[in-house]
Amino acid sequence: MKRRDFFINAALGSAAISSQLLTSCATGPILYGDKNYNINRGYQFIPKLKLSKDRIIKETVGLRPFRASGPRIEKQILGNKTIVHNYGHGGSGWSLSWGTGHLARKLVMEQPDKKIALLGAGTVGIATATLLQESGYEVTIYTKDVPPNITSNLATGTWSPASRVCDKSKSTPEFEKKWEEATRFSFRRLQMLLGMEDIVSWCDDYVVHKSIPNTTDGNGGGEIFHLEGLAPEWVLMDKKNHPFKADYVRKRSNMIFNIPSYLNFHLNNFLLRGGKLKIHDIKTLEDIDALPEKVVVNCMGLGAKSVFNDEELMPISGQLACLIPQNEVNYKLATKGAYFITRKDGIYLGGNGIDGSWDTNPKRELTEKWIDVLMDLMKEMKG
Ligand SMILES: Cc1cc2nc3c(=O)[nH]c(=O)nc-3n(C[C@H](O)[C@H](O)[C@H](O)COP(=O)(O)OP(=O)(O)OC[C@H]3O[C@@H](n4cnc5c(N)ncnc54)[C@H](O)[C@@H]3O)c2cc1C
């Protein structure tokens, strides 16, 4: 081969090799310049929310069952019935359900009867019924409504065991001890639900402030107690490492409960294992007296107010707006009084709480305000 031909062939050969490389790159997982390829980006890439008013598919207002002294977990003897109360969880019922269920089970175990009437099929009732069943009790749930027509379906669905759980000025050392036991029990139980059809999952959780805030509280949840070392702590992010145009960004990992599938999963399991469920509106104590079981576990949430004449129990309303799900978005974020979490069934926007309000009509202007706040943040975010 002449020297000139050698160079021409060599050049053609390398062109063929590099076009082969390009082809394999095009079909392989990493593409230089691809949006998700972030080796040289210098900050953590997170996908943006699609925010527009026409993506709103649902708006709801739920009533958190709040008691200033904290959830009522105690035994009461009424005539020939033993009542075990387990209600009034405020903004932490999803998180504490297993833990207070465990405390209620201990009270049930103090008596010999094995047949239990359990009132209510919210997240607290379903968890408590499951635990009792696991301990060999024969449980019948009596309830006015089942999911999705209950307060538990109107919650955000994050790990927030101290969110509006009581009024801190009214809490006692005994309550805080119970709360800690319940929180630790729940946390352990929830880890056992990971990997089961995504009913529970972990995700990144951000709080974004344009300027340095006066207080480090402000994640929108109103957490009033904290157990150090139980769940990952907040970490202040270096400005170089996040995509937000903001001076102060905190990040941690947090749990998400995929509410519709979670409730379905546990209710189905309860029924599969021989549990019974009857639709029954309990209006008075006489209705309870008429039940065949001697032991009654009360998990009626706000419904306990009128039946047990509990003056302390009151609603704290909370609005949520649900946007069309975005599978690629898998984080939670709070900023300027608005937050969103991403669940399998949608992106949930929220951030308010009105003490004593029974009004369950959503306000469109509130949803639009949250959309505007989050839209501003997304617009300025590095993509
Ligand atoms: C906007 C919002 C966001 C929230 N976010 C979170 C969160 O992120 N994390 C968290 O941990 N918690 C959160 N919560 C709080 C949580 O949703 C509640 O604490 C929890 O749902 C209470 O559960 P429950 O089972 O006690 O009550 P419910 O879900 O109200 O269930 C009560 C059950 O009792 C039945 N019942 C009521 N009255 C009667 C009657 N007279 N006769 C027969 N049956 C009756 C009902 O039909 C229902 O089945 C949030 C709440 C709201 C409103």
Automatic annotation (TrEMBL):
Homology family: Belongs to the DAMOX/DASOX family.
Protein name: D-amino-acid oxidase
Limits of the FAD dependent oxidoreductase domain: 33-105, 116-378
InterPro entries according to UniProt: DAO (IPR023209), FAD-dep_OxRdtase (IPR006076), FAD/NAD-bd_sf (IPR036188)
Keyword field contains Zinc-finger: no
Listed GO biological process terms: D-amino acid catabolic process
Any one GO MF annotation of this record: D-amino-acid oxidase activity
EC number(s) stated in the UniProt entry for this protein: 1.4.3.3
One GO CC term on file: cytoplasm
Catalyzed chemical reaction(s): a D-alpha-amino acid + O2 + H2O = a 2-oxocarboxylate + H2O2 + NH4(+)
Cofactor(s) annotated in UniProt: FAD
UniProt keyword terms in alphabetical order: FAD, Flavoprotein, Oxidoreductase
Organism in which the protein naturally occurs: Lacihabitans soyangensis
Pfam families found in the cross-reference section: DAO (PF01266)
Organism lineage: Bacteria, Pseudomonadati, Bacteroidota, Cytophagia, Cytophagales
PROSITE patterns cross-referenced by the UniProt entry: PROKAR_LIPOPROTEIN
